[in-house]
Write a structure and sequence with these properties.
Helix content: 40-55%
Biased composition (Pro residues): 111-121
Distance between the termini: 23 Å
Number of domains: 2
Region (Disordered): 99-121
Largest sheet: 7 strands, mixed
Radius of gyration: 23 Å
Number of helices: 9
Strand order of the largest sheet: 1-2-3-4-5-7-6
Number of strands: 7
Length: 318
């Protein structure tokens, strides 16, 4: 099931939901040792504090947009809307105080006025608690199953940093220290199969958190099958120009993920013993990426988008 042929000569295709680095590496045929390279290369980039916080906010923004379009909303969805709104407000309130002339640590205490005891510092545990309640509410509505999975994925990272201070309106050195703790804990504990880590990668590359679902075909060539050609295909129900552009953008994201992971897998991090650096491309093989869009009533053409070439094919019914 789920297998098609893009062309009469093309490889068989299989519906693939790219939801983790493991699935991407499975498609590319990355070895277990090289997968360590992928993780060591990806983690320092995607676990930076601004990427982590931005991904969380985008998960909530995406969810709230879809919940607002549901008719009729159930009682559980109304509760989920309240939790998501409260969580978004919490993240906003604990972000950098852009409206303040100076952060709190630079403001002098009024003369001869005893300063009140500061309230307990807010930690990521509060966000974890809200995401836990949010996941329970979303689990009752199948229409939001994808969002429920994404909320569960982000809980993995929240659990790892639950004791770290979330507030940003603090001394610069302390804020920097908290940022480093977030990055270190996420990098250390988010595994290769982590959906959370993959979500961070999507946000890092595209500013979006939605998983990519495409039809994938693969051809191997060269010595020991090191050269890999990936055919990424999407089928359109509606063949208008807007749908074509949307399909090409989705294919482009899939191709960029494959390219990014391929380069990461073949980057010598200094900790891998099975990667031999040689001149030329023979050491790691060659990755070729092809994007194909099929639809009824579309105009057959070739489109270049962000440096990649995509072919638009018309489905002709007998």
């Amino acid at each position: 099931a789920g297998e098609f042929a893009a062309t009469r000569r093309g490889p068989p295709l299989k519906t693939t939901a790219l939801s983790s680095l493991t699935k991407v590496c499975d498609v590319l045929g990355v070895s277990a040792q090289r997968r360590k390279n992928v993780r060591l290369t990806v983690c320092p980039q995607v676990t930076q504090h601004h990427v982590w916080r931005g991904a969380l906010e985008e998960v909530l923004r995406d969810l709230r947009a879809d919940m607002g379009a549901l008719e009729p909303p159930s009682q559980a969805i109304r509760m989920a809307e309240q939790i998501a709104s409260a969580c978004a407000s919490f993240l906003s309130e604990t972000a950098d105080a852009a409206t303040s002339a100076s952060p709190s640590w630079m403001r002098p205490t009024p003369y001869r006025r005893p300063s009140p005891s500061p309230p307990p510092a807010k930690t990521w545990q509060e966000v974890l608690d809200m995401f836990t309640d949010l996941g329970k509410s979303l689990a009752t509505d199948e229409r939001l199953a994808g969002h429920a999975q994404k909320v569960e994925a982000m809980k993995e990272g929240l659990y790892q940093i639950r004791d770290i201070i979330v507030e940003r309106d603090i001394a610069f050195k302390e804020a920097r220290h908290q940022d480093c703790l977030v990055q270190r804990n996420l990098s250390k504990n988010l595994g290769h199969s982590s959906r959370d880590l993959y979500t961070l990668l999507l946000f890092y590359l595209y500013g979006t958190v939605r998983d990519i679902e495409v039809h994938i075909g693969k051809c191997l060539s060269g010595k020991e099958g090191k050269n890999v050609t990936i055919h990424a295909v999407k089928f359109l129900v509606d063949g208008d120009e807007l749908a074509v552009r949307s399909g090409i953008k989705q294919l482009s994201r899939a191709l960029r993920v494959f390219s990014f992971v391929w380069e990461a897998a073949n980057t010598d991090t200094g900790t891998s013993n099975d990667i031999v650096v040689k001149k030329g491309e023979g050491a790691k093989g060659v990755l070729k990426l092809q994007g194909h869009l099929w639809g009824l009533g579309v105009e057959e053409k070739t489109v270049t988008y962000r440096g990649d070439v995509f072919k638009v094919h018309q489905i002709k019914l007998p």
